[in-house]
Amino acid sequence: MPKFKVYSQYQTSFLPLSLADCLPSNHLCFLLNDIVEHLDLSAIIRTYSDNGSPAYNPQLMIKILFYGHTQGVRSSRKIENRLNEDIVYRFLAANQQPDHGTISSFRKIHLSALKEIFAQIVVLSDKLGMVDLSDISVDGTKLKANASTSNLFDQERIDKQKKKFDEYFAEADAIDAAEDKLFGDSVGYNTVSPDMVDPVKRIKTIEEILEKEKMQKKMDKLKIAEQNIKDKQDRVNTKEEKELKKNSTSNTTDSDANLMIMKDKSYKMAYNVQLSSSKQVITAYDLNNEPTDVKSLIGMIEETEKNTGQKVKTVKADAGYFNLDNIEYCEDNQIDAYIPDGMKSVEERQVRKNEIPRFDRRNFQYDKDKNIFICPEGKTLKFLEREKDGTIKYIGTECENCLHKALCTKGKNRKLQINFKLKEKTEKMRTKLNTEKGEKKYLERMSEIEPVNGNIKYNQNFNYFLCRGKPTTLIELGLASTAHNLVKIFHWMKKNNKLRKDIQWNSLMRLQAAS
């Protein structure tokens, strides 16, 4: 009886092995393969031309990109390596090996219609009974752009750099002019100037020429940044918009990214990624260069409805999305919103502990008939002005004679600003969130959307962008979101003891198309 089993690395088979037979029958790749095989890819197929040599099948390219993102492999070069070394990739690609350039080009050019494919998979998860597409949670997270802060320019920095470059080129031109005057036209064909004869001088001259070319490239980069800033300024109207960092600066690596404060309190060039989900299935995705989330809620609701063909009836979001426009939009569209304001937890804790500061705005009494506020010292704040958004400003009239002025304000007079409509909506929302139903509903947000961000960032290795510019970074985000959903379907099937052969993919896809 032999001690060991036969071990022969180069033993050939009479019949070639099927790559599928080399993998466990319940492997993720088979589910991914089935889903992609039944997707409507006409939007992508239309991007191909009938001219030239045959391209790789779009199904092949989509399968390897989707699977790569489920495994945290996003680089086109790493996927190329996997196509040679990893049996799963080889099975999905039918043993074909597109190179990294082909993979990168497909992602940039042919995946412009990725949102349509993503939407099909979202609706598929609904047909499987995994989600409630009328009830969503929304959240944002900042991801680092493929750009450095050292390439971020504002007009002041551009002007300083241009001044240095102008001085450098003026000095270089003066030297050239002096040498022309000294040597004239004495240099003929196939000869060099006297300063190029000496090897030491020749090397120095070559270095100076290369340095001049380098400086010229930097100068060209500044011109691009300056034009980008000008274009941004031309697109906005108000002074406030013009002064925003994103509209007054330009990054020469990725002009669409913006300087943002990250979770670790550092400043980096980044994008604000927006996701909505239902039961941890992503229903919509988007990104922008806004440092705050507040302007994104309406867009995420509408994007979800566009993807799913269903009306959103309930939305949960954190305090970063609370403002008057968002609350009124939800009310106007019969959406049951659970969104706390930014001061809810702080102010409610102060009330519970009886720790409201004496000169807090809540201790100022409003006289509606006279349209004035009375401070805790009994002094009057009169109407000052009304802003476009409905906010009204009031100013103290007797502050200079108040013994407690230092505890109330650092300015000459105490100012108070209030939006009565927003105040009413805030109080109404707080009451709603403090009910048993409201507390339970808002807590759902933490289990619906927070794990999604964690999975994409850490399990899928998607905590920074590889591409540059909003169009291609949006495709990256779409690939990550789609991969996340595919994994959710896979785990749902395992949890519910569903087999691939039990799923009628053709029927589900027909139902999906009909919806």
Characterization of the model:
This protein is an alpha+beta fold and 515 residues long. 49% of the residues lie in helices and 13% in strands. The protein contains 21 helices and 13 strands. The chain has helices at residues 28-37, 42-45, 58-70, 76-85, 87-92, 100-109, 114-127, 155-183, 194-197, 199-235, 239-243, 245-248, 297-308, 324-332, 344-352, 405-408, 420-433, 436-448, 450-459, 470-495, 505-514, and strands at residues 135-144, 152-154, 249-251, 258-261, 267-278, 281-288, 314-317, 336-338, 365-367, 372-374, 380-386, 392-396, 415-418. Strands 1, 4, 5, 6, 7 and 8 form a six-stranded mixed β-sheet that branches. Strand 5 (267-278) and strand 6 (281-288) form a beta hairpin. Helix 1 (28-37) packs antiparallel against helix 3. The longest helix has 37 residues, at 199-235. The protein starts with 27 loop residues before the first helix and ends with a helix.
What is the share of helical residues? 40-55%
- Structural class category: alpha+beta
How confident overall, as mean pLDDT? 86
Oligomer: single chain
Q: Nearest-angstrom radius of gyration? A: 31 Å
Beta-strand portion reads: 5-15%
Low-confidence region ranges: none
Net shape: flat
What is the β-strand count? 13
Largest sheet, if any?
Answer: 6 strands, mixed
Q: Kindly, what is the distance between the CA atoms of the first and last residues, rounded to a whole number of angstroms?
A: 65 Å
Q: How many helices?
A: 21
